[in-house]
Write a structure and sequence with these properties.
This protein is of the alpha+beta class. Helix content is about 40%, strand content about 25%. It has 12 helices and 16 strands.
């Protein structure tokens, strides 16, 4: 494998060169509690995984001022073993920086309890190599290879050629009139947006990580059913409903009517569904909330802003930042201050050969935003809303109160549009 990094990946690479703390803040950790697993079959499965997704076994090298993922002809991965719990091992993995120049860009640990019983699996990857959807792809492919190992049946480890087309497509887009149109529209939409929320002290753009604190709530079946019913009846997505409640919440706590929220958005095309890589981007929407506005009107505005975000999803965030600076933006630090992330996830039991795994929530050690709301929508298995925030800017009492009010606002949006 010898593949160039995309604009977004290059931006993350430069960020992670600053210091080890910043680098570990961009570690992606996935933990699963498991019934007993066969260690030798799991280790053999990793070789099929490395062949199918060579980026996992790669390193990053510089060629003529360009950065490339490079791996050998026969990429390999190793299974680590640890004693403890998946939670304790995950905390350790969060603080271990990757050496991009040496690789590999994937670590997996089989965790046993002190009594010698299987507790589960912990996977760790740098964000510049994977996105949220990659976790599902990785897990599915590893489960398939593991099942083949146990039964002795052949497994096709052929790498997807779609991964090699990611950067050439991006280069074509960046040189197209469509890119010029979309970035102009993005800059106009954010023209003169305030530099941040009054809830927080202003920071310089170079301040990229904070000490994180976390609080969370689980929406019950009745709340989730009401939200889905409202979504279906009014033709709006659950993500739009959650983002509307978040914007009202931030307005109520700051009385600020104009602010920005950044949102991770997938850039995957249909032929990239099975690709492991950084096929995501940061988009930015502008909130405009007023006290006399009905929630139905705000919901329509939010839905429209998400539609525009999807239309411009291919504009790399670093390119947007540069364009805003060139237009004399007051500050770009506020673009990273507030984040909203909505994901459909499997919160139930996951088959893994004859074993059964279940995802374990892991709290971040460092925050990349001063406040971030993650909504993990597991459908009938429930919705988990996690507020990750800068512990130096908000107290736990305020954060927990905000999350309680968020729940109330969700209910109000659904019941009284």
């Amino acid at each position: 494998m010898n593949s160039p990094l995309s604009v977004g990946q290059i931006g993350l690479w430069h960020l992670c060169q600053n210091d080890e703390v910043v680098s570990t803040a961009y570690n992606v950790v996935a933990a699963y509690r498991s019934t007993p697993l066969h260690a030798s079959a799991l280790e053999a499965s990793l070789q099929a995984l490395a062949c199918r997704h060579p980026i996992l076994a790669s390193r990053i090298e510089e060629y003529d001022s360009d950065l490339h993922f490079v791996s050998g002809a026969t990429p390999t991965l190793e299974l680590a073993r640890a004693v403890g719990t998946v939670e304790s091992v995950s905390k350790i993995e969060m603080t271990r920086a990757f050496d991009f120049s040496k690789g590999p860009l994937f670590r997996i640990t089989l965790v046993d309890t002190v009594d010698g019983l299987c507790d589960g699996l912990v996977m760790c990857m740098p964000h510049l190599a994977v996105d949220g959807a990659s976790i599902s792809v990785l897990f599915s492919d590893l489960a398939e290879a593991y099942a083949h190992q146990l039964t002795g049946s052949p497994c096709d480890p052929q790498a997807s050629c779609a991964a090699e087309r990611v950067v050439p497509r991006e280069v074509d887009f960046l040189n197209s009139p469509e890119f010029a149109h979309q970035i102009h529209a993005s800059v106009q939409a954010l023209h003169d947006v305030p530099p941040g929320l009054a809830l927080f002290a202003q920071t310089e753009f170079g301040h990229v990580v904070y000490d994180a604190a976390v609080c969370a709530l689980e929406l019950g079946c009745e709340e989730t059913s009401a939200l889905y019913k409202f979504s279906n009846e009014h033709g709006v997505t659950p993500a739009a409903i959650h983002l509307t409640a978040l914007q009202i919440l931030l307005w109520r706590y700051t009385q600020q009517t104009d602010f920005s929220v950044n949102i991770p958005v997938s850039t995957r095309d249909d032929d990239q569904a099975g690709v492991v890589g950084y096929l995501t981007n940061l988009g930015v929407v502008r909130a405009s909330v007023h006290g006399t506005m009905a929630s139905a009107s705000l919901l329509d505005m939010v839905a429209d802003s998400l539609y525009c975000l999807l239309e411009r999803r291919s504009v790399p965030f670093p390119s947007l930042v540069l364009a805003l600076k060139a237009q004399g933006a007051r500050s770009v630090a506020g673009l990273m201050q507030t984040c909203f992330n909505y994901e459909r996830v499997n919160r139930g039991d996951i088959p893994f050969g004859p074993a059964t795994l279940r995802a374990v929530p892991i709290s971040a050690r460092y925050a990349k935003n001063q406040i971030k709301l993650d909504v993990e929508d597991g459908g009938l298995n429930g919705v988990r809303c996690t507020l990750t925030y800068d512990s130096g800017s908000l107290t736990s009492a305020v954060a927990e109160r905000m999350l309680t009010h968020y729940r109330m606002l969700l209910e109000a949006v659904v019941k009284q549009p």
